[in-house]
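Following up on my earlier message about iron/sulfur cluster. Here are the inputs again, as you asked, copied directly from the submission form:
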Amino acid sequence: MPPKTAQKVENRSGVGEKTLRKARTIPIFDGCRERMKQFDIPTYYRSGFITGLKRMRNARDRMKTDLDPTVLNFGNVRIMLARHFGFCYGVENAIEISYRALDENPGKRLFLLSQMIHNPHVNDDLQGRGIQFLMDTAGNRLMDWKTLTPDDVVIVPAFGTTLEIEAELAHLGVSLKQYNTTCPFVEKVWKRSARLGTDGYTIVIHGKHDHEETRATFSHAKEDAPAVVVRDMKEAQAFAKYVSGQSPAEDFYREFEGRFSDGFDVALHLQRIGVVNQTTMLATETQAIADYLREVVQQRDGSADHFADTRDTLCYATNDNQRATLALLEHNADLALVIGGFNSSNTSHIVELCEEKLPTYFIGSASDLTDQNRISHWNIHTHQLEETTNFLPAQRPLTIVVTSGASCPDSLVESVIARLLEMLHAEVPIEEAVEQARQHWEAS
Ligand code: SF4
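Thanks, got it. Here's what our run produced:
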């Protein structure tokens, strides 16, 4: 019997929006503390049964020590859901503010500096309601900013923005204060950078130099100290050769072109270094880079005194989602589906982790499950869309890992599960499988 599904994925009608956006009280957890911050976001981003499961797990595990996945047993198919996935604090905050801006400014022109978060469904919905983007994700301008007036409303996305853009818009009389959705965890990185600068360290940013958040962090960091961006271990190793003096200083300016601050002097500015991160990098890589650079300084100086011993600046959601992914990969499964925007950094890293153990498909929504056994998915290595046929193995029961990034609505995850269950002719209705899972956790 095909399973019943709980909810439509999206509402584009524009009718009854306020009713649809009635607040749900989702507790947000940060480390060991329950923050109890509640966000008022459109209910069509939620999934009734996923919200219920998350609440139940959170209520039973307030310290977030139990990373076991939640298993939904449909007889011939088992869906293994990561302990942590989906909208994070910063994303819900940004969504709430953006929709509030729409409600509070009828008749005005509304702009987002760029994509609010890296999820096309959320961005499309905002655009469908009249919000325009000033830039694409690469920072290319989509309109003439000189046409902006003080009466226009401009929203800063969760990634934050650069000081240069702030200054330019201020010059045009556009205020960014009222609807600034910069995530507090990104601002925390800026504060950490400022401290490093005050203490006389050059700031090494582990991040993707073309990512909005890293562009914003670089802009803030370079006000406090010389700054340079390294993307991964390979670049960290190349950078380390300048720290140790193995590579000639003049090559640095070519090799790291566009990724260091004005006036960067290799002879002066690599003596004392400290590392911060884009909040969504791979935790293991971040740790490895920090350890490696500390070792390079230790070998050069005979002590690591000139390496700032900072903890990583990954955000709680990145940590939770990656730890939960690693924990679920300890269980046997046949394949993994990771759902999110293809330009989402945190989602790509979840894909990377899953790929180490399972056939993994990075998809945007249920519509990527194109027919009975064919899937359209994003390859994070080639940056191409691919199609795979017969992606569902023949054996039964089939165990499928399903998880998503921090910018993916749970309603999309629900629709992917519903589609899978339909394709596989699941033997148990979804309500029954959810109830079994609930009873399991209550008894444990
Ligand atoms: S992933 Fe982290 S830094 Fe980014 S918006 Fe979410 S909580 Fe903030």
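One observation from looking it over: The CA atoms of residues 110 and 130 lie 7 Å apart. Hope that helps, and feel free to reply on this thread.
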